[in-house]
């Protein structure tokens, strides 16, 4: 996947898909530990479908992982870990997009 394609996919407006219909809102009961996966669709590019995977740690209070995936290839587009064990690479290579460089390390 090229940097340009990843930036394009991340930049698309996405909406939750429930029962085959696009929804702008979601009401759900959240149980501890929180763990759910949402299917997202991009109305501007219906060939693209995405997954948003949200998990909460059973061991640590205030540990959350948000993982944004391409639904077909399962390629990770964006991952945010709060109090997680994953760290961003410290080396900034030429392929790292400018917008992500401040988050090295």
Q: What does this protein structure show overall?
A:
The protein has 105 residues and is mainly beta. It has one domain. Helices cover 9% and strands 34% of the residues. It is built from one helix and six strands. It has one helix spanning 3-11, and strands at residues 15-18, 21-23, 35-41, 49-56, 64-70, 76-82. It has a six-stranded antiparallel β-sheet with strand order 2-1-3-4-5-6, covered by helices on one side. A hairpin with a 7-residue loop joins strand 4 and strand 5 (64-70). The chain is flat. The two termini are 23 Å apart. The model has no long low-confidence stretch (mean pLDDT 77).
Number of domains: 1
The portion of residues assigned to helices is: under 10%
* Coarse shape: flat
Quaternary state reads single chain
What's the number of helices? 1
Low-confidence stretches: none
Rg result: 15 Å
SS class:
mainly beta
Instruction: Tally the beta strands.
Output: 6
Q: Tell me the strand percentage band.
A: 25-35%
Instruction: Give the overall pLDDT as a whole number.
Output: 77
Largest sheet: 6 strands, antiparallel
**Lateral strand order in the biggest sheet:** 2-1-3-4-5-6
In N-to-C order, the SSE pattern is: HEEEEEE
| Distance linking N and C termini | 23 Å
Characteristic key phrases:
single chain, mainly beta, 1 helix, 6 strands
């Amino acid at each position: 996947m090229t940097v340009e394609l990843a930036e394009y996919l991340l930049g698309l407006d996405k909406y939750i898909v429930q029962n085959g219909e696009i929804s702008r809102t979601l009401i759900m009961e959240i149980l501890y530990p929180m763990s759910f996966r949402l299917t997202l669709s991009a109305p501007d590019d219906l060939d693209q479908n995405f997954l948003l995977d949200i998990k909460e740690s059973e061991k640590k209070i205030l540990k959350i992982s948000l993982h944004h995936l391409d639904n077909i290839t399962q390629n990770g587009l964006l991952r945010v870990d709060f109090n997680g064990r994953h760290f961003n690479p410290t080396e900034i290579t030429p392929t790292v997009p400018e917008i992500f460089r401040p988050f090295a390390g």
